[in-house]
Amino acid sequence: MKWCVVIFSLCLPFTSLAGPLPAPNPKFLETDMASVELGRLLFYDPILSGNKTVSCATCHHPRYGTGDGLSLGVGDGGLGLGFERVIDPNNPPQQRISRNAPALFNLGASEFKHLFHDGRLEEDPTHISGIRTPLGAEMETGFESVLAAQAMFTVLSSDEMAGHHSENDVAEALRRGLVTGPGGAWDILAKRVEIIPAYRKSFNVVLPENAPIHFHDIANALADFIRFEWRADNSPFDRFLQTGASLPHAASKGMELFYGKAQCDRCHSGLFQTDHSFHAIAMPQIGPGKAALLGQRNRDVGRMLVTGDSQDAYKFRTPSLRNLLETGPYGHAGAFATIESVVRHHLDPIASLRAYDSRQALLLPPHDVSDFALLADMSEMNLIASANELTPMTLSDQEIDQILAFLRSLHDQGNAESRLGVPSTVPSGLPVEK
Asked: What pLDDT is recorded for position 16?
C-alpha cells in the first residue's frame, strides 16, 4: 500500500509509511510587539521571585535550549546557570526541583492545550476562567491563554521561585494561604512590578493608561514573549512538508521508520510530534519526586496526581520532539542525558528501567543518597514496569541512527540563538543571568 501526502499538489509516495504525515499548518496567536518586549524584560527579571534571585530564565534559558541543561534543577537557593549553578551557602535549597524543566519551543501554538509533565494545567471551557488548574475556584480570570496561566505556578513554588517558609513577603503570604486577592502572593508580585517606573510606562502601552497591573497582565506579557521568541517551525522537516524540499538520505529513511516500522507516531503524532496525551513508558524515576508533597518521597505517579485515577499512574505528557538537540536531558525527571539513550529506552522500556545507570543523570552536587533511592525500591520499580504501555521491538543500530537523523531534521537552526536574545539589563536593576 502506498500513502500519498499532498503538499502543494505534490504527491510523495512512501511505501513503508503506516500513516500520513502531518499537515504544515501551525496556528499561533498574534502577538503585539510592545507586549513581547515587555514580556522579554519580565522573563529575565528576578523581581518575580520571592527572594529576587531567580527569574523565569534561570530554568528556561536560551543557552540551554529553553531548559537548564540539568536532569533536575535548583531554583531558589542557587546561584548561576546550568552546570555552573552552585548552592547559595547563605540560603541553601530544601531539595532539587522535582521534575525536569520542559522546553518552551512552540508552546504558543494553539494546539498546546495541556502544560506541565502531568497536564495539570489545561484549557477547559466549563471553568469560568476557561482553564482548569489545581487551584480550582481560586483561579484568577484574565489569563489570555493556557501558556499565560502556567506562569502563576512557578512563582508559587517554594523550590522554584517563591522561597521557603517566611523568608520573604511572597513566601509569608503563601504560608498564610494567601494566593489571590489583596495581599496574596500574586498581588505582592504585581505591586512590585507596578512601582518600577519603566514597567509602569511599558504597561501603559499594552493596558489602559495607569490601569492597575494584575498578575495576569504580567503573565499575558510573558506568554506573548515565549510565543514569539521560541516559535520553531522552520526546520528541514517543515520545509519538506511545505515545499517537498528533500531531506538528507539518512533523515528520509529515519522518517519512514518513525512513521512506519518503529511506530513512533503512535504517540509522537502531529506537526510538533506530540499527541498531547499521556502515556506510561517505564521512565526511570530519580530525585525527590512530585509525590514528595504528599509525604511519599521519591515517587512520582504522573497524571494520576491530577486525575486521581489509578489507570493514569506513571503516565506523563508526550513531549514535542522539536529542537531536541538543545533540550536534554530527557524524560519527566531528566533521567536520560542523550537522545540516543532515550530512543533506545523506547525499544524495551522495562529492560531499560531495570538496567538504568544513574550515571546518566546530570545533577548538581552535592548528591543526596535519596536522589536514586527509588531505583532500589523493587516494589515501586515493579509498579512503574507494570504500567508500561510499549511492546518491545527490535531495531538495528543503523535504523536507530536513521531515526536520530530524522530527529535532527526537526531542529530549527534559525531559532537556535532565539530572536530577541537576553537583555543586558532589566527595569528592576537586579542582575541578569547571561
From this structure: 52
Cα–Cα dist 330/342, whole Å: 7
What are the residue ranges of helices labelled H in 117-196? 146-149, 151-154, 169-175, 185-194
pLDDT digits (tens, 9 = 90+) for 399-414: 999 999 999 999 998 7
The helices-and-strands tally (H runs, E runs) of the chain is 15, 9
Same-domain check for residues 52 and 175:
yes
Residue finishing a domain among 175, 207, 229: 229
The residue type of 111 is E
Which long-range contacts does 128-135 make (Cβ < 8 Å, 24+ apart)? 134/306, 135/179
312-318: average pLDDT:
97
End-to-end CA distance of the chain: 53
The three grid cell numbers given for residue 3, joined into one nine-digit string: 500513502
Cβ atoms < 10 Å from Cβ of 383? 14
Same domain? 358 vs 262: yes
Confidence of residue 19 (pLDDT cuts 50, 70, 90): low
CB atoms within 10 A of CB 205: 12
Burial class (CB in 10 A: 0-12, 13-18, 19+), 129: middle
Rg of the Cα atoms in the chain = 22
Question: Do 385 and 272 fall into the same domain?
Answer: yes
> Could you tell me if residue 429 is inside a domain?
no
Task: Report the share of the chain in percent with pLDDT over 70.
Answer: 92
Please tell me the pTM assigned to this model.
Answer: 0.93
Q: Are strands 3-7 and 86-87 parallel, antiparallel or unpaired?
A: unpaired
Residue 51 CA to residue 161 CA, distance in Å, equals 8
The reply to whether 179 and 274 lie within a common domain is no
Contacts of 396 (CB under 8 A, 6+ apart): none
Q: Count the residues in the chain.
A: 434
User: Looking at the predicted structure, is the pLDDT value of residue 213 above 80?
Assistant: yes
The residue among 66, 58, 44 whose CA lies nearest residue 88 is 58
285: containing domain: 14-25+233-413
Residue 74: φ, ψ to 5°: -125, 120
User: Would you say residue 420 lies in a domain?
Assistant: no
